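LAB NOTEBOOK - FOLDING QUEUE
OPERATOR: T.R.
BATCH SIZE: 2
PURPOSE: Compare the predicted structure-token outputs for two unrelated chains run back to back under identical settings.
PRIORITY: normal
REVIEWER: second-year student, initials M.K.

ITEM 1
FIELD SEQUENCE / FIELD STRUCTURE:
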Amino acid sequence: MNIIKRIIIGAGIAAGLSLASCDLTTESQSTFDETQVFSDPTLAEYQIYSISQCFGETNCHRGRYLPWYGYNTDIEWYISNTKGEDKSAIVRYSLISTNSQLNLANGPYNELFSGIERANLSIDGIRKYGNPETRPEMASLLGEALVLRAVLYTELLKAYGEVPARFAPVTPETIYLNKSDRDVIYKQLLADLEEAIGYIDYYSPSSTDRVGKAFAQGMYARVALMASGYAQRPDNGQVGTGNMGSIRRSLDPELSKNALYPKALAYLKDCITNSGLRLESDYEKLWKDVNNMDLTAGKEIMWVIPFSNSRGRWNYTFAIRNNGQTDWSPTTSNRGGQAGPVPYVYYWYDKDDTRRDVSCVNYEWENRGDGTLPYPAGMENWYFGKYRFEWMTTAPYGGGNDDGVKPVYMRYADILLMAAEIANSSGEGEEGNNAGTLTRDEAFAKECLQTVLARAYGSESRAEEVLKGISGEEALFEQVKKQRALEFVGEFLRKADLIRWNCLKSNIDKAAEELTAMRNRGTGTITNANYTSTSEYLWYRHTTVDGIPAIEMYGNHIGDEGATETSCPASGSGWQPYTNSEGEASKYFDEKIFTSDESKNIQNKNTTEGFYDSDPNLKQYWPIPQTTITNSQGSLKNDYGY
């Protein structure tokens, strides 16, 4: 066995040993070879653990991929609007291959391939020495390795587009590879997932940081939707030549909707019928459990990024902003609030949709001399309420940069909405003809949508009312797209969705138009919200919920008319006006919000200037970092005009 393989296997065993609760009486790890490792279920399982290690590396998902992938979109954006920063360049579609945040030898591109190499060694070793055909425990580990490799490759495809196809351990002959057409990778991932589904149980017996059959079925559907959808692709046969490409679907008939949707839908239906998974009845409790790291398998959460309890910077990056507060969080430093929902999203929800106040929050924590309390954050600063330090009541978080919150990668709601989308489709016909060869099942699509909406509204009858009168493929598809936005805001699925639907730029442009209507208190075109029935001025008062300080606001809701600079028509006492830094009553809906300020190098955020610097349709993917290009001995070249 070559030295590279020995090191990687040794690292896998060491990682596994650190998780073990008992002593092993086997040989020293330095004497293990692949024959021993992959014929022993315990040692092979430790090697499986090592595949996931890449997620927690400092410059992979922990500190570079998750903090930067997935926005700006029509529902999620980077809150800072300072021009010219390397950080803002990533989200504003103006990334270059030498960007200081991602041009790293140990950045996400290389770390994900490190995880893929560990997966390849595990898959190859178990096939050779584990006898998975006759040993169910080894077949299960093989299935887990196949699924994890599919996840790692999906993350690469989402961020970088075309990448090299590596489905076997590295040899001297394969150290340097050019990129492959992504269709080659898609077909291998689909085959891998199909194989894995036959090996593993519906969910891990204990925790959602281990993969199960239901998750593999969901991954098959997610990959099928990506593979059959639109994307910026190099011209046929021009991958890895520097080709700019165009937005198109695959030319491979094996990756058409007609070919992939029937099997994907069958897997989703099996998951719905037989997995035992369910929606958490209370949307707020779902996210309180996430913040408290209660991720017991067999409920709604299907798989999470498997950070340890002392690793990962999820709430550090995305929680409701904490300005040095200490009363309701262990941290004494500023935390959270790097990104948030695009402000209009709050108004896209119906007022009785329980997801609204969980998902979109317009306050931040601060101590202004009377204890740490929530204060209005201003119209430009909406935060993801799914992530809250004050909800980490039992989580083992001590206040450092790494909070241990495990980002949700897939949950049962996604199974239902993917099933609705696929069941609603009639497939692909000739260019310009929507008719395909699939048997469209509108009733089942509506049934899946209704399940999601019944939880959102807490009422089956209310869900029926929302869907009443919606029929036909196009109208139902629009409802699927809307519900994916409202259900998953802050979970960063949207960018990949918009790309495969071929509406990335157009939807972002519509969002900018909506912000203009909102700040001018007009009528929204996305939300149909009548912003004229809000007030220019905002008033607020403090209260408590479950013993934790909370805030009520008046003037920023549809129907909150009548609030002025000096009076608030809301009933009750304790109302205070929203003020500026000088303590003067300040307008909340104002034509001056989102505007640019050249003296402060600030972008205008009520126009497309606030979302992107380059055409998003031409910069759908990140460039492979220059350090990797340089070290590839001429084998790699960036496409897409980089």
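ITEM 2
FIELD SEQUENCE / FIELD STRUCTURE:
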Amino acid sequence: MALTSALHTSFAGIRNTEAKIYTTSSNVTNADKPGYTRKEIETNYLSVNGQTVAFSTSLETVDYNLYLFENLIEDTTIASLHDTISTYMTQYSAQLGTTNGDNSLASFADNFATNLAKLSATPEDASLKSNVIDAAEILARELNRVSDSVQEYRLQVDSKIERSVTEVNNSLQKIADINEMIIEANVAGQSTANLEDDRRVELEKVAAFIDIDYFENNDGEIQIYTNGRPLLDSRAHTIAYAANTNLDKTTLYPAGFGAIDLDGFDLTPVISSGKIGGLIDLRDTLLVSEQAKFDEFSSVMITEVNRVSNQGASFPARTALLGDVVGVAAGDALAATGNFRIATLDAGGVVQNTADFNMAGYATVGDMIADINAILGPDVTASIAAPDGRFQIVANNAGEGVSMNELTSDVGPNNLGASHYFGLNNIFDGTGADDVVVSQYLLNNPEFLSSGTLTSGALAIGDVGVAPGDSSTVNNLRDALTANFTFNAAGNFATQTESIDKYIDKIISDAAFSAKNAADKVKISQSLMNETKSTLENLSGVNIDEEMAHLIDLEAKYEASATMLATIQELFDTLLSAVR
């Protein structure tokens, strides 16, 4: 009876050691598997007839700290938020360049001013005028490019939201499937340790995308919520989102984007963290803010440069002044005061005909056109040009051009001069960074850039209306780029008084600061996340050196158990021989 008990005890010991060897080898094999935790065999012992026997074993994760895992989930969500914002803001800032870079908006604005300064010395130089227009066109195109880039980033971000939602749904379904397997394993009395590892990996994936709360119920299921709404309870709830295929700066949430729908509820305004939270912040706030600042810069630049340009006149005079403002109709009300002057000039700038017009007497645009034609016709014809409805003044005599001086004219709610109101001598056309262009007449012939001014004093036929060496308007244009103007609140910028060139420097500097600030937050948040992860892994992760040392110890135990079995076998053989 003693030999039989010894045999059973030895068999139980060797089976227990085999299970531990298998578990230890699994720990080593899976050491690099994401989320894998070190497993140990937990042995239960039973006393039978005074003998202690290992009768059952179970696989358990060693020292797993659920509180630390909760911290890791929170840290992962925050780190993912900052990493997402940092990635895009760093790329965006790099595209803008630096305030002193050779290929940045700041340098292109400086180049425009530099070429105006060069022109001021010899305003009749056609090649220098061409250089000014080239610089203006480069500046406008760069504004277009930056605007397009901002909207392209928003489109990319919106697409990433859709893909992120898909990944969240996939992980939620995997967790739901694992929940079912854990319940089945618990019923069957099987270990759930590896299943719990896999579930925690998927839970981390969900947390990287969206801020969540979760808890484990009595059945061992994990239930997940975001902002109090279930993502996973008895089933996985599907989040739905379809990204836009195209957008522009007018595409804004909520009208311009669909809902991130969870069972009929739009999650968009309540997701505040994780990758999706960062993407929403970029799409709807940060990049919209950048667009607003560039639009404000462009609007002030267009307005102020055109204001000065429309006060001037070109040498030689243009054969026709065609406005940039479209949609003008003869019946349009004309709320205006003050006077403006029109003159026809020969190639040397000598006046051939001239008249001043009092705008207070005009109720409509048609009234003004009729008065111009009555006084200066047939030398001049004023009309509304088809097909897009632009006001124009045409010199009808060969070899003559037409010039204008706004004098004291004041038109419309923005108090624009008469030429500016219709855009007759604009340098830039457009309203914002996305559509600013150089006026077509200047692209066709840069010589028509306003360089001087039609005389505002007494003027008669035979007088010089615009002198060839007059650089007054060029000087005023150059000064306008460094003069202070009021910029309205835009994006994260408050209302401020600043020069055009300094304002663009502020936009670039602010973008660089935002990128650096985002990068700093990434370092801090990832450091906290890594520290939590490291602590958790130190408690429950696999240390291969320790596992190998443990394996050597188990080998010794296995050999001892095997020796014991061999000895008992010999004793049985001796006993059987004695009986025979």
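REVIEWER COMMENT (ITEM 2): Residues 156 and 253 are 16 Å apart (CA to CA).
FOLLOW-UP: none requested
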